[in-house]
Amino acid sequence: MDRGDSTILDVLQGILPEQTLELLQDHLQNPQTALQAVWRQTSLAANKLGTALSPLFAPVLARALQALHDSPDIVVLAFVLGTFVMMLQIVAWVHRTMMYVTRLAFRMMGWALVFAILAVLWRRGPETAVRDVAVFVGKLAGYAALVKDIWLSEYKKFDAQTKRGGGVVGSAPGGQRVPSGRSNAGW
Predict the structure, then answer these.
(1) CA dihedral angle for residue 84, residue 88, residue 93, residue 95, rounded to 10 degrees
(2) Are the CB atoms for 74 and 68 separated by under 8 Å?
(3) Which residues, 6 or more positions from 187, have their beta carbon under 8 angstroms from its beta carbon?
(4) pLDDT less than 70: residues of the chain
(5) Where do runs of H (alpha helix) occur along the chain?
């Protein structure tokens, strides 16, 4: 390989142990190793391919560059389009990250709930825990019954108010009903 390899090895000198550096020098910089042979063959094949294809692609590349020079709108359009695609990728990445974090948080909350229930069972014992659950469910059912009663009484009031007219004065243009005490000037 080239001088860049020894520069990299010089930088790694303070990081890697001495035996590892010697091993890397023996296997990377020795011209008789298989890695060096593969590197030489690959670079030789790439140079031959570049030399063979250069006459074919040089005119095409020159025409493309001349077209871009003559029409800068294409460059601006490509830049705007590239920026838009990059922004969409960033938004998609943020969305995936947010979904992952949300899913992780809910899973952690679920496991925390399981461990909290297990801790309560361990601490209080199964009989006391069942009694606590029964008391909690009873209080919750009482609260639900209270909410149901309030909702039904309010619904009956509203139903009675709408059946007897509900204090509606008249109708506004277009068939809309106007509540009493208000004028339709603001509507």
Answers:
(1) 140
(2) yes
(3) 172, 176, 178
(4) 1-6, 166-187
(5) 3-11, 18-28, 34-70, 72-124, 126-163
